[in-house]
Write a structure and sequence with these properties.
The chain is an all-alpha fold and 91 residues long. It has one domain: Arc Repressor Mutant, subunit A, CATH 1.10.10. The protein is 84% helix and 0% strand.
Length: 91
């Protein structure tokens, strides 16, 4: 019992390190897949998820309607999901 108690923090640490490495690799793959998207889809996803802009702000910056920005986001996410399945990337 004492051995298990002693090893438990080490096992948690190991899981944490492995988890961080896997997460980092997954994020790198997602960034690569983002680069594979059409420019208009990538632009909207980056503005929304990384710059935290609203769809109104995105539509103003890209000179398109809010509905167009929403459509680009929708198709961009659909395409990303397909690529993630194809490349077996899990987040």
């Amino acid at each position: 019992m004492k051995i298990l108690t002693f090893l438990k923090p080490l096992m948690c640490l190991q899981d944490g390190i492995d988890g961080k490495i896997m997460k980092s690799q997954s994020h790198a793959k997602v960034r690569q897949m983002l680069d594979m998207l059409p420019e208009d889809q990538r632009e909207v996803i980056v503005m929304r998820h990384f710059a935290n802009l609203s769809f109104k702000e995105i539509s103003e910056k890209t000179n398109c309607s809010i509905n167009t920005a929403l459509g680009r986001m929708r198709y961009g996410l659909i395409n990303l999901r397909k690529m993630m399945v194809d490349h077996q990337v899990a987040l």
